[in-house]
Please model this.
Amino acid sequence: ALPPAPKGMQYQLWAIQGGKPVDMGVLPNGLAGTPMMQKISAPITHSDAFAISLEREGGNPAPTADKIYVMGKA
Model:
């Protein structure tokens, strides 16, 4: 239940593999705050954890550490 992203921002999903974040894509802004799910088409061979960060719209090549909202072990 993420709050809606502020204007110009978007949530981004990360897979943590070997301690390093791997970009899994951005989530549509209309998805936040709803019980809906988003299928991610990026291939995942293994992951230690997943995280969601709030980034500028369109995504970021690396997560902004103080903007990580959710993180959980796989």
